[in-house]
Amino acid sequence: MDLQAFLITFREALEAILIVGVILTYLTRVEQTRFHKWVWSGVVLAIAASYGVALLFQIVLTGFAAMGSQNYLKIGIMLVSSGLLTHMILFMNKQNRDMQGKVQSRIAEILTIGGVLNMIVHSFLVVVREGVETVFFFAAITGGDIGKALQSWGALIGLLLACAIGVLFFKGTKRVKLGTFFKATSILLTMISAGLLVQAIGIMQDIGLMGTVYRTAGGQFGEVYNITWLMPEHPVDEIQYIRDTGHHPLINGQVGIFFRAFLGYTQNPSVEEFLFYWGYYLLVFVLLARQRRQREREAAAAMRAGR
């Protein structure tokens, strides 16, 4: 259980730390640290809300009887988080372009209240999502005794390691140019957002909220491809693969479960998971291209007006 608690805490905490870290670093780089306290407020409220869910699950509800509703909660939070991350990607891209033509003293004019509120709300949602997921995962590995997992050395070490990696990552970004920082973090956020979207699609298909256009002759969901041989998305899938083939996959299932939780990796995506995942990247590309064309039109109009 200690190893399971370590992996769960590490992967859930790392994603939250990276996204909140991106928000805080962004505000620091544009000299708007006055908003840090509000971001941290969102984080603290999210931790309190996660603790409340754990308390409710442990005392009021009856263990696994409550887990039937977790999927609906996870789907809702994942979809909202994906939407907010998409807004943040577009917002940060716009800020980066606008700042290239403005002096630092006018940054306050660029940073809109709507963008800041989005960051604060997302700092809450991303932490509460990871916190609630941790609660349900801990309930699963302990038979409902969440406190047992919370008190294990694995949970503590996982949290400390995630914090250490987060600190090292963002210390390194201080030496990176602002434009490069925007591009790198936008790629990271896009990958996380696409992963959240495809995970939500997968859960909806698993519980019957969403169908598929492709089923096998046996009535099962058809898969676009199957790369379990490369990296199973869960240790259980690894065990089944070894049992069925007699061979070990190239990459351990413990690595797969991390990428599944962090970036939405799946070994055998359905048609819908595949289309939504890559369709999301296409959508972000189109929206960013549209932003760029709009800026070019505004710049051309400004030049004509100045003649």
Write the layout of secondary structure elements.
Elements lengths: L1 H28 L6 H25 L9 H30 L7 H4 L2 H30 L3 H5 L2 H21 L4 H29 L28 H11 L7 H11 L7 H36 L1
Helix pairs in contact: 1-5, 1-7, 1-8, 1-10, 2-5, 3-5, 3-8, 3-11, 8-10, 8-11, 9-10
Would you kindly provide a brief summary of this structure?
The protein has about 300 residues and is mainly alpha-helical.
Structure description:
The protein has a domain at 2-212. The protein is an all-alpha fold and 307 residues long. 31% of the residues are buried. It is 75% helix and 0% strand. The model is unreliable at 99-110 (pLDDT under 50). The longest helix has 36 residues, at 271-306.
Quantity of strands, as a count: 0
- Helix amount: over 70%
Into which percentage range does the β-strand content fall?
under 5%
Largest sheet: none
Number of helices: 11
Indicate the mean pLDDT: 76
- What is the molecular shape? globular
User: What's the quaternary structure here?
Assistant: single chain
What gap, in angstroms, lies between the N and C termini? 71 Å
Order of helices and strands: HHHHHHHHHHH
Radius of gyration using CA atoms only = 21 Å
- Low-pLDDT parts are 99-110
Structure class: mainly alpha
Structural key phrases:
mainly alpha
